[in-house]
Design a protein that fits this description.
With 243 residues, this protein is α+β, with helices and mostly antiparallel strands. It has helices at residues 2-18, 20-36, 41-53, 56-71, 86-92, 95-99, 121-138, 174-177, 201-210; strands at 80-82, 104-108, 115-119, 144-153, 159-167, 215-220, 226-236.
């Protein structure tokens, strides 16, 4: 069974990787058609369909490759002391995307500048990026999203940092909570702006959090929005590095 699982994971990884080049060719061809036939309505209509669908595929492929790397143990994390300020630009980058749906994105940075997060910088970025992306994707138009970075005490009574992403979306039912972090999970809620969903994002988040000795969970009631919470250990930034 282990051998078959490894073979499946290898095959999935190879298939996902091999899809990248053909998709790039399809998108490039659509761009050429758009450039050379600007006055052909039928061609322009087909080009529009191709160019809207093509960018979604790399996201699916990336998620498949990420979950494959995690499950085959090829993901390596470098856990070290990170300044929480690295999240500032990530949140800032979502403001315009949120505004396209009339959503206001609020950000509360960590108040105590002496506290750092014990995590892998790239994995942390991917985790928070995924949670904010989901909040924007599943929130109705003209709502609010809050991203907070807070000092906290972990379940083991150690010093930690908590990152919260709260939305005003449809919330998550008790039934959906059971499969929330599972692979290819299909939940009751659907993206509100025609965005694509692979059902892999939260599974990747959970696995990335756990290999960094953190924890992630969701607090929600159906119809009352959802708050996704990630907790990591923290440490004090040396005074010499505060300058």
């Amino acid at each position: 069974l282990v051998a078959l699982t490894l073979e499946k994971d290898d095959s999935l990884g190879l298939a996902a990787h091999d899809l990248k080049n053909p998709l790039s060719g399809i998108f490039a061809s659509a761009q050429l058609l758009d450039r050379h036939f600007p006055q052909e309505p039928k061609i322009q209509q087909l080009v529009k369909i191709i160019m809207e669908a093509s960018p979604r595929m790399p996201d699916i492929i990336t998620n498949l490759l990420d979950i494959n790397r995690i499950e085959t143990g090829t993901v390596r994390v470098n856990i070290h002391l990170i300044r929480p300020e690295i999240l500032n630009s990530l949140v800032e980058g979502y403001h315009n995307r949120a505004l396209e749906k009339g959503i206001i994105l609020h950000y509360q940075p960590l108040e105590d500048k002496r506290i750092g997060i014990m995590a892998d910088a790239q994995a942390l970025h991917q985790i928070v990026d995924n949670l904010i992306s989901n909040a924007v994707k599943y929130s109705p138009h003209w709502k609010n999203i809050w991203v907070r970075v807070l000092a906290a005490t972990t379940a083991e009574n150690a010093s930690g940092v908590r990152i919260e992403v709260q939305d005003e979306g449809p919330g998550i039912s008790a039934e959906d909570k059971k499969k929330l972090f599972g692979k290819f999970a299909r939940l009751t809620a659907h993206p509100t702006g025609g965005e694509n969903s692979t059902g892999l994002g939260l599974s990747i988040v959970k696995k990335l959090v756990e290999i960094q000795h953190g924890r992630v969970w969701c607090e929600s009631e159906s119809g009352k929005g959802a708050t996704f919470i990630v907790e990591f250990l923290s440490a004090t930034i040396p005074e010499a590095n505060m300058l």
